[in-house]
Amino acid sequence: MADSQNSLTVEIVAADHFVWSGPAKSVRARTEDGEIGILPGHVPVLAILAPGDLVIEPIDEERIETHIDGGFFSVDSNRVTIVADNVQLRGSSDSATAEPR
User: Is there a contact between 87 and 19 (Cβ–Cβ < 8 Å)?
Assistant: First the structure.
């Protein structure tokens, strides 16, 4: 299990389904103000996501790359919540397959 001080807890949801959750080393996304990278210990932030790539580096899995059409994300206390309008997952990780919740 990942040390909560040295990892992020990430959750991605789309408008109509759960996409992915788990511990991660980093999250990179495009906001309306430009690209942002999130590492453990990041200050709290709430941002509007622009259409583009979202990249997650999970602790025990392969990199997860997604394409989003927009949405928002929040960061607080090493917890990253991403709510996207539409999510298209890419990559070879089986656990990154979108599943209805």
Answer: yes
